[in-house]
Queue: 2 jobs
Job 1
Amino acid sequence: MTILRSALDTGSGEYAEAAQAMLDKIAEVDEAHATAVAGGGPSKVERHRKRGKLTARERIELLLDEDSPFLELCPLAAWGSDFQVGASVVTGIGVVEGVECMIVANDPTVRGGTSNPWTLRKSLRANEIVERNRLPVISLVESGGADLPTQKEVFIPGGALFRDLTRLSAAGIPTIALVFGNSTAGGAYIPGMSDHTVMVKERSKVFLGGPPLVKMATGEDADDESLGGADMHASVSGLADHFAVDEPDALRIGRSIVKRLNWRKKGPTPRAEVREPLHPADELLGVVPTDLKVPFDPREVIARVVDGSDFDEFKPRYGSSLVTGWAELHGYPVGILANARGVLFSEESQKATQFIQLANRAETPLLFLHNTTGYMVGAEYEQGGIIKHGAMMINAVSNSKVPHISLLMGASYGAGHYGMCGRAYDPRFLFSWPSAKSAVMGPAQLAGVISIVGRAAAEAKGQPFDEAGDAAMREAVENQIEAESLPMFLSGRLYDDGVIDPRDTRSVLGMCLSAIHNAPIEGAEGFGVFRM
C-alpha cells in the first residue's frame, strides 16, 4: 500500500504547543498583510473614492471570474523598510474568462502609485513568473512613474519593465493594459508597449511629459486632455485600442479581450477526478515543533497535501534523512523531495541526484519541502566525499529543466538551502510557512564560529581574550541573525513569493501547478559533469 498513515498525535502537549505557536505567527503575518491591504491609509483611500475611483483590489475583484481564487504574490514586499508594506503594487495570479493571468495593479493610494525600489523588484518578479510559466499579463495602470527621491535606484534598472513587455509579446504571451489614471513619463510605455490598451474617458492620462514639463521644455501651453487624454488617444494618436466610459466598463472590456485570445495551455492536463487527502489540513498547524532543532516527519505534511494521501516513496531505506517519492496534487503528477532529519549526508545527495534525473526523464515537476541545517561537516564526511556529493545534488538541481516549487517549512540553512532549490536556483515559485528560518547557518552556530575565530586570533597574537566582550558579541550576533532569518524579513526582501498559512498549502501549490502547466513541461536532456 502507498497510502500514508499518520502517526501525528494531535492530542499531545507538544502538538498543542506547536499549533499555538504557529497560530501566533500566523496572526503576525495577517497583521502585516492587513497593512498592505490598507494601502495609503483611510484618508488616502477616502480621497481616492471621492474621485469616483475603485481601489486596486476592487479593480482586481471585478476583473476576475466570480468566486474564483486569487493567489497574491509577494504581498509583504518592502516589509521592514522605509516604504509601505506591499510596495504600492498588487501582483498575483487569477482567472479571467477561464484563463489564468498575471495581474499587476498599481495602488494609487500609496504615493500616487509611484514606483520605489521594492515596487520595481516586485514587478520584475511578476514578469519573471509570466515569462517562465507563459501567463497572459494584465496591467491595471495608475501610477505617477518613479518615486523621484529614489530615482537613482529605479530609473536605470526600471527599463527592464518595458523590455520585458516587448519580449513577452515577441514570445506570444499576451500583454494587456487597462489605464485608470496617470501613466506618465516612462510609465507611458506600459500602454505603449502592450498588445492591447484600454483607456477610460476623462480618467486616463498618458503622456511622456505633462503640461508643466511641456511648458518648461517647449514653451507650449497644453492641457491634460489634449496631451494625453483617453479621447485624444482613442481618436487622434491611436494609442488606445478601446475607449471605456468608466472603470467597470474598462474591466468589462479587459475581460472581453481575454475571452478572444483563444488561449490554450501547452502543458499536460491534470487527472479529471481528484481525491482529497485522507488527513485534515488543519492538523498541519502542529506539525513543526517550536524548536527547529527537533526533527519532524515530512510525510505528515505530504499526507495532508497530496491527492488521496497516496505517495510512492523512492529509496525509502537509503539516505533516509531525505524523503523522495511520487504523488499527484490536484491531479498533477509531482516528484517530492523533503528533508526528514535536517542534515544532508552523501547518501541523501546521491539519492536526490538520481531522483531529479528520473523526474526530468519523466517530465514531472518537482516539489522541495525544506527543513535542513545543510550538508554534514567533519573529517569523516569530508573524507567520504561530502563536497563532491553535495555538488552533485546542486548540479542536478541547477540543470534540471522541469518546473520546481519550493516550500520552506522549518530550517533552510547553508548549502542545504541551495541543494533544496532555494531562491537563487530559480524555482518557479517559492513560499514559506511562518515557522521557517533561512540563513547561512543557525544564529548560535554563526556567533560561535565568530567567537572561535576571535579567540584563535587573540591567542596567535599572545593577547588576553575579552570574555565579557565575546559574550556581548555573541548575544548581539545571535539576535541579529535570528531577526534576519525570519520569514517576514526574507519575504520583505522578495526572497520568497509569500508567507502562507500551512492550512492553505494544498490550495497554493495546486494553483502554482496549474499556472505552471500553461507552458510545456520538458525535462533536461543533459546535466553537467558529475564527480563520482
Job 2
Amino acid sequence: MQYDALIIGGGHNGLVCAFYLAKAGMKVRIVERRDVVGGAAVTEEFHPGFRNSVASYTVSLLQPKVIEDMRLADYGYRAIERPLSNFLPIDDRQYLKVSGSLKKAQAEFGKFSEKDAAALPAYDAMLDGVADILRDLALRSPPGEGSGLGGVIDALRQGRMLQRLSVERQRDLLNLFTRSAREFLESWFESDPVKALFGFDAVVGNYASPDTPGSAYVLLHHVFGEVNGKKGAWGHSVGGMGAITQAMAAACRDAGVEISLERPVECVLLDGDRAAAVRLTSGEEIAAQRIIANVGPKLLFGKLIDNSALPDDFKRRMQDYKTGSGTFRMNVALSSLPRFTCLPEEGEHHGSGIIMAPSLDYMDAAFVDARQHGWSHRPIVEMLIPSTIDDSLAPKGAHVASLFCQQFDPEYAWDDASEKSAVESIFDVIETYAPGFRGTVLGKQILSPRGLEEKFGLAGGDIFHGRMSLDQLWAARPILGHGGYRGPIKGLYMCGSGTHPGGGVTGAPGHNCAQAVLADRNIASRLFG
C-alpha cells in the first residue's frame, strides 16, 4: 500500500500536520519509535503513584487556531492559568512575586526600584507590540526553494507586516534580534531582581550567557503565547502535557490517520532523486508519495538520509547547524511542598514558575562554569509544582515538581556519575532557598542532555531541535533556501521544531508544513490533472 504522506515521528507537530492532511482527503500514516505518541510532550508515571509531564512541562505557545481546528477541548484538553506568573526568591527575606496584574507587578517592582515600576507599562507595551508581529508570522510559511510565486507573494506580505510597526518598534525589534539580554534589559531596568526575572527567559533552552549577543530574542520567543485567550500567560495542561498530544492523536484517528507505535525508522529510501519510502529497523519498507520528517534536522540529515544524496553546500551547512540547549530536566516526587525561607507557608507562589537565579551575573557565572567543567555547580533552576493545581498527578498530600535546569554542556561526556553529581548541584541550589528539600524527595527521574537525546531523539538534548539564533530563524530555519518546510530532496518535507517558528509546543510547524504540502499538491493537480 502506498500512502499519500508518511510522517516520521508522532510528536505534537507530526500529529498536527497529519490532521490537516487527513482532513484534506489524504491517506496519512505516522510511524513513531516509542510506545506512545507525543514526542517530548508526554505524561508518564515516573515513581509509583506519581505522574508528570516528562520533558515539555508547561503550556502557552500552543496555537489557538490549532486548538480550535482540531477541537482539542472535545477530546479532553483543558488548560489552567498559573495563579502567579513567576516567583523569584532572592535571599532569606526578599522575593519578587509577579502575577498577570500590572498594578500588582508594579507594586512588587517598587520594592526594589520605583524607576523599574514606572518603566514596566512601557516595557510591556513594547513587548506586546513586537510579539503581535511574531504571533502573526508564526502561522505563515517563510520563503524557501520550491515555494513558487505564492511563496514570494506571501514573503512580501510578511515584510509589509514588519513595516506596519512604528519606527520605534522596528528599533526595538532590531535590538531584540541583535543585542544580548543584559544590554537590552539594562536599557529598561536597573534592579538586579527585575532584570533576573525577565532575563531568565533569555537563557531557557539557550546554552548561552545573558551577555551573549542575540540572547535577547529568546526572551521574546517565550512571551508571544497565550492561555485561554490571555496573551503572554502561562498555564498547566490538566493531566500534563500528554493530555494535549493524546487529544491530538484522538483527533487524528477520527480524521482517518493511521498511527503506528514502536516503529523506529532506519532510513529514508530514494527512488532516483525523490524520497519514496522509509525502511524501519525491522526491515519493513513503507512507500508514500511524500515523506514528512517530524524529527530534528541533525537526526534527519545526519542519520536517516544517505549523505551522498544531499547537495554539497547543504551538507556543509548542515554539519554546522547548531544544536544543544544546555538543559537538564528532572521530575521529582515530593512528600510535601518545599518551604522557602523568604515565604515559608503554602501559597500561590507554589503554583507559579519558581526561578532560582537571582541576577544576570549569577546566570553568566553559571554559563562560564558549565563551559569550564561540563555543568554549572550553581545552575539556573526553575521549579514548577503542577500538583498544586492538578491533583491527578500525585497522591493526596504529596506533590510532583518539574525541575527545568540550565547550563549543562550538551557536548560533555555525560555518564551515570556525572549525572548524579549534577543532580546534587541542582539540589544544592534548591536547598539555598528551601532548606530541607532533599528530605522530601521520594523519587526522581533524571534527563541530562544525554537522557533527552536517548529518550526523545533530541540531538544534543536540544529541546528546540536547533539553536534559536538569528542565523537559524525564519527563512534560515534550518537552512536558508529550505525554510519553507521543503527538504533538498523532492518529496521530502520537514514539520518539526527545527523549522519556523521554532521550539515549544506550538503546533505551528506542523500546521505550516501541511499547508506547504497541500499547496504543492494543488499545483501538481493543476499541471498534471
